[in-house]
Design brief:
ubl conjugation pathway; EC 3.4.19.12; Ubiquitin carboxyl-terminal hydrolase; alpha+beta
Length: about 230
């Protein structure tokens, strides 16, 4: 396993800057705050939403639930149409989530040709899943973009070797119209039993799922954050 990185702050402006550094046309796609899960607050999020990033605490309850799921993991039928990236770099879940969000949504079409992001995603798609971690570990542009972004947060960043109990995952609409969860710590992409009939339904579907699966499992926890990948500034 590679040496750990400094974790990223959950900040949509920083995520947009990270994306621009690596090659996403952020006039077409950018990240936005999700201020809450009430309908009125969800309605404030710019549409269409192409992916949702979710930050949550790694509690014993969540860990037990995920371990049980992994024991009976079944690959989605359209898994070959999804790009899944295993996480082997400590504290890199923010970057893994960003890669999952961009590569498995319409934002992939806004990755500019010849950029580090375009080259990395092409190499990852052409590599077996087991070889993808090495691509991430040896990508200097990815490491540098992560390091620069981690140093620009509004709060003091922890040390790279600090024990961090927060984790990012990404949600996208799968090719078959189901909610797909992408978490680099798991065995592969996870198809949730949640219908997402159209792209316009993704935000609501993801919000409802995180409430029932994550938040209700640990109702005393408050360290949650959601960020949407949506339209850019153009």
């Amino acid at each position: 396993m590679s040496s750990p990185w400094v974790p990223l702050e959950a900040n949509p402006e920083l995520f947009t800057e990270w994306s621009a550094r690596l090659g996403l046309d952020t006039q077409k796609h950018a990240f936005h705050d999700i201020f809450g899960l009430d309908a009125d607050l969800l309605a404030m999020v710019p549409q269409p939403v192409d992916a949702v990033l979710f930050l949550f605490p790694l509690t014993l309850g969540i860990d037990a639930r995920q371990t049980a799921e992994d024991a009976v993991y079944a690959e989605p039928k359209d898994a070959k149409e999804l790009l899944y990236l295993p996480q082997t770099i400590g504290n890199a879940c923010g970057t893994i989530g960003l890669l999952h969000a961009i590569s498995n949504s319409r934002a992939a079409s806004a990755v500019q040709a010849g950029t580090p992001l375009a080259q990395l995603l092409e190499a990852a798609r052409n590599a077996p899943q087991g070889q993808r971690p090495q691509l991430l570990e040896t990508c200097d542009a990815l490491r540098d973009a992560h390091a620069q972004t981690a140093g620009e947060g509004q709060t003091a960043a922890p040390e790279a070797h600090a024990q961090v109990d927060l984790h990012f995952v990404a949600f996208v609409r799968g090719p078959s119209g189901k909610l797909i969860e992408l978490d680099g710590r798991r065995r592969g992409p996870i198809e949730r039993d949640v219908d997402v009939p159209t792209a316009a339904d993704l935000l609501t579907a993801a919000a409802q799922f995180v409430q029932t699966y994550y938040m209700q499992a640990d109702p005393d926890q408050v360290q949650y954050n959601l960020i949407a990948l949506g339209p850019g500034s153009a």
